[in-house]
Write a structure and sequence with these properties.
7-stranded parallel β-sheet; binds NADPH dihydro-nicotinamide-adenine-dinucleotide phosphate; 14 strands; Rossmann fold; binds N-acetyl-L-glutamyl 5-phosphate; 2 domains; about 350 residues; Dihydrodipicolinate Reductase, domain 2
Length: about 350
């Protein structure tokens, strides 16, 4: 791979597209050569996002107008359901990180069941890697197409997978109570995301039916080698960014909450983006804002035999664009934290 890689971002006028631009303009090996939009095609980036002005970015075009001959890496930040055919049609020399959910479920029947239409690129699906980087790094390294995980699945799987792999927590009866900022829903206008609908309150949604349940269960199933069922409930919070996943687990045998903490500290030692806080310390979404970090907290429960885990991420960074760049770095053999060194924007 040459010194600099040429990047196309599909869906650049959306929240995750803008976040990709914000991060990639500081990446020493990346050059943005193409940006696409749908309704906003033909507009310069700064007309949509004034904070991204003066960077010499290409004008946004439609996907059909992109000249792929000069593109090395494509970040696909399109709504799910629009992506499988686009990616299946790209030339083979283009490596792809897909931020949508289109390639995250590896069973096409499960995909059809949860997304309401048949999978449109089942052959390609077989060679895709699931890009939860810390867990699937070797597969990401070898892949041409990476399915970047969903935001809730990232915040939920990172605390759980090492513990399930080691048989320290029970695979049954896992309760995931997660909260998200409103940017998780994207930038397109929806009545449910109006200021008046989301401010000064919190509400659950997708109760017992959210499509991130099968994605989380798939990842936990890979970790345990058996079917896992989770009780996952997302909530919408009156904040722009951030996800906090509160996870209630049952311990196996004589395992203690302190054992869980020790196992997580050991598993994530040396990982640039996962930090396990001191035992009994709770992460907050404010502590990860704008950064690619996942902060994990472990607490002993008052109820014997139980423990409480927390995972906090910025949904637009570790939950989307930051992890996507982390995956690109792994795919291309760049240092994994290249372009992602930003510390959180606290307070
Ligand atoms: N927001 C988040 O926190 C996360 C999002 N994701 C996933 O990433 C993807 C992008 O999300 P997000 O940035 O929030 O979405 P947005 O709604 O903010 O942006 C969507 C982008 O796709 C373009 N677009 C919409 N429809 C089409 C179409 N039919 N053909 C081509 N382009 C189209 C839009 O263009 P225009 O503006 O011109 O309409 C815009 O650039 C989604 O699949 C989402 O599920 C994943 C993890 C977290
Ligand atoms: C707050 C909010 O609405 N969040 C989105 C999830 C964002 C994300 O990661 O979703 P994808 O799987 O669509 O890529 C939701 O619950 O649908």
């Amino acid at each position: 791979m040459s010194e600099t890689v040429n990047i196309a971002i599909l869906g650049a006028s959306g929240y995750t597209g803008a976040e990709l631009v914000r991060l990639l303009v500081r990446h020493p090996r990346a050059r943005i050569v193409a940006l696409t939009a749908d309704r906003r095609a033909g507009q310069p980036m700064e007309a949509v996002f004034p904070h991204l002005g003066g960077l010499g970015l290409p004008t946004m075009v439609t996907i059909a107008e992109v000249d792929w001959s000069g593109v090395d890496v494509c970040f696909c930040a399109l709504p799910h359901g629009t992506t499988q055919e686009v990616i299946a049609g790209l030339p083979q020399h283009v490596k792809v990180v897909d931020l949508s959910a289109d390639f995250r479920l590896f069973d096409p029947e499960a995909y059809a069941q949860w997304y309401g239409h048949a999978h449109m690129a089942t052959d390609l699906q077989k060679s895709v890697a699931y890009g939860l980087t810390e867990i699937h790094r070797e597969k990401v390294k070898a892949a041409r197409v990476v399915a970047n995980p969903g935001c809730y699945p990232t915040a939920s799987q990172l605390p759980l997978i090492p513990l399930l792999e080691q048989g320290l927590v029970q695979a049954e009866d896992i309760i995931i109570d997660a909260k998200s900022g409103v940017s998780g829903a994207g930038r397109s206008a929806k009545e449910s995301n109006l200021f008046t609908e989301v401010t000064e309150g919190i509400h659950p949604y997708g109760v017992a039916s959210h499509r991130h349940s099968p994605e989380i269960e798939q990842g936990l199933g890979w970790a345990t080698g058996k079917d896992v069922v989770v009780n996952f409930t997302p909530h919408l919070m009156p904040m722009s960014r951030g996800i906090l996943s509160s996870i209630y687990v049952k311990l196996v045998g004589e395992t203690t909450a302190e054992d869980l903490h020790a196992a997580l500290v050991k598993r994530y030692a040396g990982e640039p983006f996962v930090r396990v806080l001191p035992f009994g310390t709770a992460p907050q979404t404010r502590f990860v804002r704008g950064s690619n970090f996942c902060l994990i907290g472990v607490f002993k429960d008052r109820v014997p035999g139980r423990a409480i885990l927390f995972g906090a991420i910025d949904n637009l960074v570790k939950g989307a664009s930051g992890q996507a760049i982390q995956n690109m770095n792994v795919m291309l053999g760049f240092p994994e934290d290249m372009g992602l060194e930003q510390q959180p924007l606290f307070p």
